[in-house]
Amino acid sequence: MDQIMSPALDTDFIASQNAPLAAAVQEEYDALGRTLDRRGIDIAAITSAVAAFAVASPSWAVGSGGTRFARFPMGGEPRNIFDKLEDCAVVNRLAGATPTVSLHFPWDEVDDLSGLKDFAGTLGLGFDAVNSNTFQDHPGNALHPLSYKYGSLSHTDPAVRAQAVAHNIHCAELGAKLGAPALTIWLGDGSNFPGQSNFTRAFERYIDSVKTVYASVPGDFKLFLEHKMYEPAFYSTVIQDWGSSLLAAQAVGENCLCLVDLGHHAPNVNIEMIVARLVHAGKLAGFHFNDSKYGDDDLDAGAIEPYRLFLVFNELVDAAYRKAPGFAPSYMLDQSHNVTDPIESLMTSAVEVQRAYAQALLVDRSALEGFQDANDPMMASQTLKRAFTTDVQPILAMARLQKDAAIDPVSAYRASGYRAAVTRIRPAKSGGSGGIV
Ligand code: RM4
Ligand code: MN
Ligand code: MN
């Protein structure tokens, strides 16, 4: 692994990029501090909460994404998990919000696991939930001789189910060795034709398989079940919605929780309410953040519906404020970058998620409660809007400055020449075929 010594990872370089911007940030921060002070809010407390906020980078999102029609590769795409970690380190170094990476197996599997852990450590990175993959076949991989064409954990054939169970247990073991807290199970199982699959039997087989995985996972390691309405199956999906996910998680056990990917719902679904329900049930695992207009678009977080992202965070901050029992969600990005430099998209998305969090922290919760109890919809909604429309940019910039990250991550990244440097080192990956990796 020929590690890049890029200015993008260098504190002095970042400081030199920040220098011309720092005075303006301070001035805007002080002005916002006075405004918030008049609202009874301590800007320093908000800034440290924002600085402590973290969201994981997805290892699979640092290469160019694609649609089922085509993929347009860019220069310097990562060749392996070490390159991916290097790109993730740049994202974290400059935007200062993504100290962990979510791995996907077998895509990211290596023989030398402790070497991988050490390498991540030298880059200042740790690991969040790992992901299993039984939504595609893995030709040549001795652990996956059977096909997942007709499903995996819910397959009609016990031999395929056993293979998928073994893979998930293996992933959990890899995750535990790397210090990851959980395994996320998203599976493509479902059907394309009415009648093709028996909904009840498929769901029961799935629960049975997940119970077997659960029985073998180490200690307090968690299982996250990720639902998705459709795709790759287009008529039915075994874990189609949060209801199915919750039923399964409740059947499996205490450390089995429900993960919400923002793109995995029908249009118009009230996702923030799903959040509230899962918090109520003590079953919210966390999120895959992204944005969408039509379906599982995997666009950059906050790119399309920033108000919805804020409303999701409003529920999360409310849960923390109420000290909801067991509330400790994991936050991850899950995006596909088809037309942008993935590093720029990930930095921008991490900032957008942080922005929604900062805005939600500004909600006057006791005023809101009063308006709710008094049945005053206008003032209740205005209370949320007041927080959402506050420009928290100076808080985000100050949080980055305090952490030696970049005030303006995208400009600093461009000035570092990282993409050109990796393009010289990493040979171009051919491939115009569709697919997300
Ligand atoms: C799926 C889902 C999973 C992710 C895969 C790559 O749509 O969102 O979380 O692991 O994509
Ligand atoms: Mn996801
Ligand atoms: Mn998805």
Keywords:
6-stranded parallel beta sheet; 15 helices; 3-stranded parallel beta sheet; about 45% helix; alpha/beta; binds manganese (II) ion; binds beta-L-rhamnopyranose; about 10% strand
General description of the model:
The protein is of the alpha/beta class and 437 residues long. The protein has 15 helices and 11 strands. Strands 4-5-7-9-10-11 form a 6-stranded parallel sheet. A 3-stranded parallel sheet has the order 1-2-3, with helices on one face. Strands 6-8 form a two-stranded antiparallel sheet. The longest helix has 28 residues, at 11-38. The protein is globular and about 65 Å long. The chain starts with 10 loop residues before the first helix and ends in a 12-residue tail after the last helix. The model has no long low-confidence stretch (mean pLDDT 96). It binds beta-L-rhamnopyranose and manganese (II) ion (2 copies). Beta-L-rhamnopyranose (RM4) binds at residues 60, 131, 186, 226, 228, 261, 288, 296, 334, 436.
Give a short overview.
This protein is of the alpha/beta class and 437 residues long.
SSE layout:
Blueprint: H1 11-38, H2 43-52, E1 57-58, H3 81-95, E2 100-102, H4 113-122, E3 126-127, E4 130-131, H5 158-178, E5 182-185, E6 190-191, H6 199-216, E7 222-226, E8 236-237, H7 242-252, E9 256-261, H8 271-280, E10 284-289, H9 306-321, E11 330-333, H10 342-361, H11 365-373, H12 377-388, H13 393-402, H14 409-416, H15 418-425
Parallel strand pairs: 1-2, 2-3, 4-5, 5-7, 7-9, 9-10, 10-11
Antiparallel strand pairs: 6-8
Helix pairs in contact: 1-13, 2-10, 2-13, 3-10, 3-14, 5-6, 6-7, 8-9, 9-10, 11-12
The structure holds beta-L-rhamnopyranose and manganese (II) ion (2 copies).
Beta-L-rhamnopyranose binds next to loops.
